[in-house]
Amino acid sequence: ILQLWVIFLDCKTPFLKNHFEKRARHLLVFLLTQTNYRPITEQIEHNYPCYSIYYYDCSLNELTVRLNEERRSGHAALSIENGKKALICFGWSGREIHKTCEIFDGSTTVSTFSADSTHRDGGLGLYKNQPTSVGCVDEKHQKAETLSATGWTALPDHPKRISIHSLVGLENQSMLLIGGRDYGNDGAFQSGIWQLKDENWNKIGELLQADYSGSAIYIGRSIYYFGYYSKAIQRLDFTETEELQNVAQIGNQPGNFVYPVLFQTVSNYCI
Asked: Which superfamily does CATH assign the domain made up of 3-265 to?
């Protein structure tokens, strides 16, 4: 039985962005090893500690390791190297907007290549199996960049000055951009489902409700999108060849949650 877990973890630092009324949430990164499944969270506070949630007892434990840089808001994390490590990039420290990235393996953090552009609230997703980010809430640009073993390189610009969206990589090497806000149009909420494939952006569908600051997870042949503004839980169904087939609303969240943490687990986990 499929069950999605949604975790909302408040932290003490207010979420300093536009008119968000909720406090910031922890950012969860999954390090899936052969011996232990360890989702790792990075707390958005001045000392930015990391935590682990262990599946066998559902406990939350603070780790001694720290990130190399303070990332209060707008940063992103992506599981890499088959779940063994997490790439953590961008964000705002309270003093500067980061272009930097670091890699966390569960015990140490190592700095890696910095992007050419800022990508606060530009997210991270996989395009051709490489970490990719699009847009920036501060600079309000359309730039997309992808990270290889030699550094960041430019991809085609997105058609809109978009940010605060969700990025999801598909098995066919393409990447979807879902929702967001268009800062070329006064920050209008977006319902578009965009696909970057073969170096081209194409709009392939629409959410039933425009949204931003949501989270998405790809399970089987469906993407589950949890929106911040509308509270709607929407499911995007795909064919076996990963063509978008249908969009449906399957429920509502109990409140407005910024970037809720999603992961798949067994039925009645920790109940």
From this structure: Kelch-type beta propeller (2.120.10.80)
